[in-house]
Amino acid sequence: MASNSNGTPTLRADAGGSNRGSGGPAKISKSKKPAARKSNARKQSDIEKKLHRAELLLSVSRRVAGFETLGEVLSKVVEITTDETNAERGTLFLNDPDTGELYSRVAQGELVREIRVLNDSGIAGTVFTANEGLIIHDAYADKRFNRTVDQTTGYTTKSILCVPVRTVAGEVIGVVQALNKKKGKFTKDDLNLLEALSSQAAVALQSTQQVERMRKSRLQEMEFLDVVSDVTSEIELDKLLAKVMGEATRMLKADRSTLFLNDEKTNELFSRVAMGVSIG
User: How many CA atoms lie within 13 A of 36 on its CB side?
Assistant: First the structure.
């Protein structure tokens, strides 16, 4: 604020030409608007990815709920894994604690026989022991890659997406991997999705294994009860027949009595009880 020659106050502009004393609204720089739009777009994209993942996991749970065997459940999970990550094929390895090996529980492709590798070798073994997922863009450039599997199967692995399979308690029981991205490269989003799907596989694995164990145990119990029932029936029948024939002999004041039964295979009569003594 300054005064002119007559003493009347005047308003003087600053060097930038802005009127500090005007009290007008502050202007927003146009350069900040694109940045804000990009930030909002990223947030929206993240929300959409999370919603898609949640819907996918719910869909997986519903789809595998109708399967009765462990093989069907795991095959479907691996199939969904390859589809959602846009991979050529996928493999689920489970750990064999008795041999210290990872074996292919589900393997897509033409190979029929089981694949076994040490649980601390190759990319799968590294993920299993480190309990951490990996993205490998060039398999043959990675020293950890086990080429013998490709040599055995005849398949050429180019890129790998691999994550551990953990139980609810956090125990690592295997790994699941997707091989050869069909278009582009495997991303962090692919890794997160595969980890989510691997959790579904672990839950299905544990629950289905429990059901199979219960069925097997129940079958063994039923078989045992059948054997006991058969043995018991035989014992009780012999005792009953011997008692009946002994009582008949006594009541008729006979020297002896014999019970003959027909053998349908030979068309012969055989003595099941004679003189009250079991000989059949």
Answer: 6
What pTM was estimated for this model as a whole? 0.56
Supply 162's token pair.
């691999």
Q: Which helix (H) or strand (E) holds 270?
A: strand 268-274
For residue 22 the two structure tokens come to 């005007």
DSSP 114: P
In this structure, how many other beta carbons lie within 10 angstroms of the beta carbon of residue 218?
A: 10
Round to whole Å and give the CA distance between 88 and 105. Answer: 18
Helix (H/G/I), strand (E/B), else coil: 170: coil
**Sign of the Cα pseudo-torsion (207, 76, 120, 123, in order):** negative
Give the HSE-up count for residue 134: Cα atoms under 13 Å, Cβ half-sphere.
Answer: 22
d(CA 52, CA 55): 5
Q: Are 256 and 274 in contact (CB under 8 A)?
A: yes
Per-residue pLDDT of the chain (280 residues; tens, 9 = 90+): 555 545 555 444 444 444 444 455 555 555 556 666 767 766 776 677 666 666 666 666 666 666 667 788 788 888 888 988 999 999 999 999 999 999 998 888 766 678 899 999 999 999 999 999 999 999 999 999 999 989 888 899 999 999 999 888 888 999 999 999 999 999 998 998 888 888 777 776 766 555 556 667 777 767 666 665 665 665 667 777 777 788 878 778 888 888 888 888 898 988 877 754 444 4
**Count of CB atoms within 10 A of residue 201's CB?**
27
The helix/strand/coil state of 24 is: coil
